[in-house]
Amino acid sequence: SITGAAAWNRLFDETIASLRFIVDGTELTLELTLNKLQDSDGEIRRKAAEALSTVFRKELRIFALITNTLAKDKEISDRWRKFEDVADSRHLANRVEREVVDALVAAVREAYPRLSHRYYRLKAKWFGREELDFWDRNAPLPQVEQRTIPWTEARETVLSAYGAFSPEMAAIAKRFFDERWIDAPPRPGKAPGAFAHPTVPSAHPYVLLNYQGKPRDVMTLAHELGHGVHQVLAAPNGALMAPTPLTLAETASVFGEMLTFRKLLDSTTNQKQRKAMLAAKVEDMINTVVRQIAFYTFERKVHEARREGELTPEALCEIWMSVQAESLGPAIRLSSGYEPYWCYIPHFIHSPFYVYAYAFGDCLVNSLYGVYQNAAEGFQERYFALLSAGGSKPYAELLAPFGLDAKDPGFWQIGLKMIEGMIIELEGME
Ligand SMILES: [Zn+2]
User: Fold this and answer.
1) CA 93 to centroid of ligand 1, rounded, Å
2) What are phi and psi of 321, to 5 degrees?
3) How far does the centroid of ligand 1 lie from the alpha carbon of residue 46, in Å?
4) What is the dihedral of CA 166, 169, 174, 180, to 10 degrees?
5) Gap between the Cα atoms of 192 and 183, Å rounded
6) Looking at the DSSP assignment, which residues form a beta bridge with residue 182?
7) CA 98, 104, 107, 110 torsion: positive or negative?
């Protein structure tokens, strides 16, 4: 491995780390340059995009060689192990059947026009334009004054959102506050981001946050407490069976976030603030669902084409552009310069086909939430049984009590319809 696939992975990492981009005369790393695509100044976003294009183009030969070599390496391994489809080894690792992922991908691709195409048309309108340039896709939405939410209020918001769904779930979440299992404030030297760590089933989970009082931070608290509740409920399965496969790992967290989002939204009377909250949520979901499925489609095309022979850098760029045009739609202008943007995405190199798990998790929860909204009766017991199983049952068995079948594209439509509903609500706020 160290002279094969691992070496190519390392070459990728070292190449990415060595890249420098010049934006407005300042030399930046990749991470900082990508961050500039979310700058509130459109000129800075354009300059950052140009710098990315220039450097990626210059390095295209090496990224194409890495991609080709690793795809061929995987093809040999897959053939020897008798995997039929290019993504079968990933499906096995995720403990999910190919038909289920196929149904998800088909449902999402079919929904592109109603989700991303429609949302970006709306976003372009907000910016007073017919089309957005590709560097404006993640441009921040017009800023809205948001008050700072004190910790005690965040706690009440999340616990009451959880409690309205199930008092039992709120009681478990409350233990995290009462027994001081949460480290909330940012401090110098503290790790950034947020997570819930299950430690060992005989102990209890810990939650780490960097709480700063933004609505986003309240959602993060709800998210991590969802993981925490899941970890507490699954603990009796023991250390080997408590952890869930990737496809189920985000169930309780995204569900808890959704309960809290709805609660925050319902208590917001200011129309501007409501619109900002909804738009941020929709954009998040499009980046998780649509974008990751487009990534997956790109990988499938690359790995399938590689079976027929080596791909030129131009061929890789062409696949990228066709997949992006399909998923982003006519309101995003994919002008020259966007072609090599596939080359920096680390998942393609480090863990082929991993990306669909993000969309899977989000869509699964949205569909579950849709079922809950349509018929709350008896939902809570079934949901608790699902969480309590940890990683001990296949998800098909877990979904059966809800009358759901993930091999059916109709199942995935329930969740996608929910995103569409939010976009319709946004359109109505014009
Ligand atoms: Zn999470």
Assistant:
1) 19
2) -65, -35
3) 32
4) -170
5) 12
6) 207
7) negative
Distance 224 CA to ligand 1 centre (A): 6
Spacing, Cα 162 to ligand 1 middle (Å): 17
CB-side neighbour CA atoms (13 Å) of 129: 15
**Rounded average pLDDT over 170-181:** 98
The CA 277 to ligand 1 mean position distance, Å, reads: 20
Q: Which of 148-152, 189-193, 367-371 has the lowest mean pLDDT?
A: 189-193
d(CA 94, CA 244): 10
C-beta contacts of 53-62 below 8 A and 24+ residues apart = 53/337, 53/338, 53/340, 53/341, 54/21, 55/19, 55/20, 55/21, 56/340, 56/341, 56/343, 56/344, 57/340, 59/15, 59/19, 59/343, 60/313, 60/317, 60/340, 60/343, 61/313, 62/11, 62/15
Q: Would the CA dihedral through 253, 259, 262, 263 be positive or negative?
A: negative
Q: How far is the CA of 228 from the centre of ligand 1 (A)?
A: 10
Q: Which one-letter amino acid corresponds to residue 208?
A: L
- Give the distance (Å) from ligand 1 centre to CA of residue 269: 29
Contact by Cβ (8 Å): 30, 16: yes
> What separation in Å is there between the alpha carbon of 250 and the centre of ligand 1?
5
Query: Ligand 1 mean position to 427 CA, how many Å?
Result: 29
Q: What is the pLDDT of residue 375?
A: 79
DSSP 146: -
- Interval 43-100: pLDDT, tens: 999 999 999 999 999 999 999 999 999 999 999 999 999 999 999 999 998 889 999 9
φ, ψ of residue 28 to 5 degrees: the values are -125, 155
195 alpha carbon to ligand 1 midpoint, in Å?
7
